[in-house]
């Protein structure tokens, strides 16, 4: 299975910054050591033209040349540097590359990404560009060029925070369905309505979460017929997360991943996934949740090998 990384483009953070940047490198190291089926590839950088599919050109330019105003910079939560701009582009490129690989092999990954708080003209909550939105729009454009048919994209956002940026970008776009399951009391406090939002109470456990996911997937089934699935497999619903406020176990999160991947697999839909948030009290717990997602994904990748390429490719 192909997985795209950009953690070697180091985004410099001041000492004591609360974002756990090391988690990306730790995940990559564990995958290399313990899951050799996952092939590590350097993420390409997204171009201005690609970013403009989901972002205002003036915002892209301001990120590139470091001219975002102080309020914008604070909202993103990372100090600007040329490396921050480069890393943000690579993270989008990783999801785009994962989508292309998924058309060939059924499933592929971005080792970072899932930056769902970024909207068309501003970033927020550690998100600069919205990799899911850019990738969805770019895949639609490529698909139309090749097949002269519209591609519908389903975004399944299971990060514990609501995908407000993604929802705002696709608010008036019926060709992309945004599903988000998230903590009702968690950031962002002003949520932007997506196509289907499921608010979960603080302390939500495995059973309640998986039941809510089941109902949500059934509802999607009634309303939308996707040709591609983008999955944001956030690690922050885990009970050991500093910010999550939910109480999912490792097993619960693994069952969540299996349910989403199985849903796509049964419908022969290519699926690309990104990691999103994870802020474990002990960072090893975040990396464990993400590693488990890759174990499940490698299993589905093996199943895809025994079946022809995705139906719409
Ligand atoms: Zn999150």
TrEMBL record:
Annotated keywords: Hydrolase
Pfam families from the UniProt entry: Hist_deacetyl
Residues in the signal sequence: none
Gene3D superfamilies associated with the record: Histone deacetylase domain
CDD domains: HDAC_classIV
Residue stretches making up the Histone deacetylase domain: 18-285
Record family assignment: Belongs to the histone deacetylase family.
PANTHER family on file: HISTONE DEACETYLASE 12 (PTHR10625:SF19), HISTONE DEACETYLASE HDAC1-RELATED (PTHR10625)
UniProt-recorded name of the protein: Histone deacetylase
Native organism: Curvibacter microcysteis
Taxon lineage: Bacteria, Pseudomonadati, Pseudomonadota, Betaproteobacteria, Burkholderiales
């Amino acid at each position: 299975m192909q997985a795209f990384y950009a953690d070697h483009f180091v985004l410099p953070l001041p000492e004591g910054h609360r974002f756990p940047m090391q988690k990306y490198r730790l995940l990559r190291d564990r995958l290399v050591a313990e899951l050799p089926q996952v092939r590590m590839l350097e993420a390409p950088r997204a171009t201005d033209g690609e970013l403009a599919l989901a972002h205002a050109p003036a915002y892209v330019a301001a990120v590139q040349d470091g001219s975002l105003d102080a309020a914008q910079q604070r909202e993103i939560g990372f100090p600007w540097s040329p490396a921050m701009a480069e890393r943000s582009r690579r993270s989008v490129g990783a999801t785009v590359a994962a989508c292309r690989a998924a058309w060939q092999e059924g499933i592929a990954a971005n080792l970072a990404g899932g930056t769902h708080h970024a909207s068309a003209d501003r970033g927020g909550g550690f998100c600069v560009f919205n990799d899911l939105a850019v990738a969805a729009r770019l895949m639609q454009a490529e698909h139309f060029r090749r097949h002269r048919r519209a591609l519908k994209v389903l975004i399944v956002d299971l990060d514990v925070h609501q995908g407000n940026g993604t929802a705002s970008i696709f608010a008036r776009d019926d060709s992309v369905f945004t599903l988000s399951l998230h903590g009702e009391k968690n950031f962002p406090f002003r949520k932007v309505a997506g196509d289907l939002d499921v608010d979960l109470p603080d302390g939500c456990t495995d059973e309640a979460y998986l039941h809510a996911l089941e109902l949500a997937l059934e509802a999607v089934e009634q309303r939308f017929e996707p040709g591609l699935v983008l999955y944001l497999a956030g690690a922050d619903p885990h009970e050991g997360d500093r910010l999550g406020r939910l109480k999912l176990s490792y097993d619960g999160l693994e069952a969540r991943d299996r349910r989403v991947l199985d849903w796509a697999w049964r419908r022969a839909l290519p699926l690309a996934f990104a990691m999103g948030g994870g802020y474990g009290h002990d960072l090893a717990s975040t990396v464990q949740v993400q590693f488990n997602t890759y174990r499940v994904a490698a299993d589905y990748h093996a199943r895809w090998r025994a079946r022809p390429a995705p139906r719409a490719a």
